[in-house]
From TrEMBL:
Residues covered by the Alanine racemase N-terminal domain: 12-232
Native source organism of the sequence: Halanaerobium praevalens (strain ATCC 33744 / DSM 2228 / GSL)
One protein family per Pfam: Ala_racemase_N
Cofactor(s) it depends on: pyridoxal 5'-phosphate
Any GO MF annotation of the entry: pyridoxal phosphate binding
Keywords: Pyridoxal phosphate
Task of the protein: Pyridoxal 5'-phosphate (PLP)-binding protein, which is involved in PLP homeostasis.
Family named by the database record: Belongs to the pyridoxal phosphate-binding protein YggS/PROSC family.
Residue(s) carrying N6-(pyridoxal phosphate)lysine: K38
Classification via InterPro entries: Ala_racemase_N (IPR001608), PLP-binding_barrel (IPR029066), PyrdxlP_homeostasis (IPR011078)
Lineage, broadest ranks: Bacteria, Bacillati, Bacillota, Clostridia, Halanaerobiales
UniProt entry tagged with the keyword Nucleotide-binding: no
Protein name (record): Pyridoxal phosphate homeostasis protein
Length: 234
């Protein structure tokens, strides 16, 4: 994609975020745009970073490392968020990357333990989100909605994790009412945790298809790929 198109896509998404925030009487400043650059070149990340995108997301460790290396060589230091299913044997590579700023996809106790252990080895405290399988989709990872509080209680004591909030990936649905209802349920769980268990700062929900609805329902991070980068080619 051409540089002008990337930048104009970014500006369009930014404008839509503002509009959705206004509709919900929210301050647009409290909503972070995570540009999901998977399957796209490091050059596109460089262009968008220069244009003012502050956060980028990747879902595969190797791809993330390769892109990051290219950018670091050019002196470009990106704030990366890891958003994919993370295999435990890959955690060590991620924790070595100083500019991997958040893991949004903590989806099991075993993974949480491994991340905690590797973070400790690297003498760092890593911000994390717990992934919730809100739609109880068999093809997706994540903690079941009714188990979120117990799960948080278990990982709360892990000293090298900083639990920042919750994340969810919904299935592709045409039914915006249905999507809205899942987002509402996520917000309910989030508020319940904040009131009764621990303070949280981030609710990561909404992708190209549904980020405006997610913002109306309380998202603080939206993860947008195709609306910025165009369709992914595999
Ligand atoms: C790919 C991906 C996205 C972005 O999806 P788009 O439909 O391209 O906006 C968001 N979150 C996760 C976890 C993803 O894997």
């Amino acid at each position: 994609m051409e540089k002008e198109d990337l930048i104009s896509n970014f500006k369009k998404v930014q404008a839509k975020i503002k509009k959705a925030a206004a509709l919900a009487n929210r301050d647009p400043q409290e909503i972070k745009l995570l540009a999901v650059s998977k399957n796209h070149y490091a050059e596109a990340v460089e262009i968008l970073n220069e244009a003012g995108v502050s956060y980028f997301g990747e879902n595969r460790v190797q791809e993330l490392e390769e892109k990051n290396e290219k950018l670091i060589e050019k002196g470009i230091d990106i704030d990366w968020h890891f958003i994919g299913h993370l295999q435990r044997n890959k955690v060590k590579y991620l924790m070595r990357m100083e500019n991997c700023q958040m893991i949004q996809s903590i989806d099991s106790l075993r993974l949480a333990k491994e991340v905690n252990k590797r973070a400790k080895k690297n003498e760092r405290i890593i911000p994390v989100l717990v992934e919730v399988n809100m739609a109880k989709d068999e093809n997706k990872f994540g903690i079941m909605p009714e188990e979120v509080k117990d799960f948080l209680k278990q990982i709360k004591e892990f000293e090298n994790l900083k639990i920042e909030g919750l994340m969810t990936i919904l299935p592709y649905l045409d039914d915006s009412q249905k999507l809205r209802s899942y987002f509402k349920q996520m917000k309910k769980i989030y508020d319940d945790v904040c009131e009764n268990l621990m303070p949280l700062n981030e609710l990561s929900m909404g992708m190209t298809n549904d980020y405006q609805i997610a913002i109306e329902e309380g998202a603080t991070i939206v993860r947008v790929g195709r609306a910025i980068f165009g369709e992914r080619e595999y």
